[in-house]
Amino acid sequence: QVQLLESGGGLVQAGGSLRLSCAASGRTFTVYGMGWFRQAPGKEREYIAAIRWSSGITYYTDSVKGRFTISRDNAQNTQYLQMNSLRPEDTAVYYCAATLAPDWTQSKNYGYWGQGTQVTVSS
């Protein structure tokens, strides 16, 4: 009922910046939170950031706190992830996700996913 489409991935040098976008469509009025996950080759998926759709309250995992900023544009049904001070260890496929559950901070509650966008940070 909710479709997500990521964009903005690419190749960037260490220390650089990149901005990811995620456009939501469908029954977006049911969404409580949207977030970002990432998965590097051979590693488990990592929950890195989320935002409460209505209020804009945010969550960040420690590894990205202070470097990444999540935001949203309710009118455009779009969320963004501004990534600054990128490091090679940030290299991964980044996935946009949405939850219909009121507890938007819990990674287990995210059930709608985009197809992912590759972010590669060169050293």
Overview in brief:
The protein has 123 residues and is mainly β.
Element-level helix/strand string: EEEEEEEEEEE
Percent range for β-strand residues: over 45%
The N- and C-terminal alpha carbons lie at a distance of 40 Å
Radius of gyration: 13 Å
Number of separate strands: 11
- Main sheet makeup: 7 strands, mixed
Residues in helices, as a percent range: under 10%
Number of helices: 0
Derived structural class: mainly beta
Q: Low-confidence parts lasting 5 or more residues at pLDDT below 50? A: none
Average residue pLDDT: 96
Shape: globular
Provide the fold topology:
Elements (H helix, E strand, L loop, with lengths): L1 E6 L2 E4 L4 E9 L6 E7 L6 E7 L5 E3 L7 E6 L4 E6 L8 E8 L12 E2 L3 E6 L1
Parallel strand pairs: 2-11
Antiparallel strand pairs: 1-3, 3-8, 4-5, 4-9, 5-6, 7-8, 9-10, 9-11
Tell me what you see in this structure:
By secondary structure, the protein is mostly beta strands. The protein is built from no helices and 11 strands. The strands form 2 sheets. Strands 2, 4, 5, 6, 9, 10 and 11 form a 7-stranded mixed sheet that branches.
Search tags:
single chain; 123 residues; mainly beta; seven-stranded mixed beta sheet; four-stranded antiparallel beta sheet; 11 strands
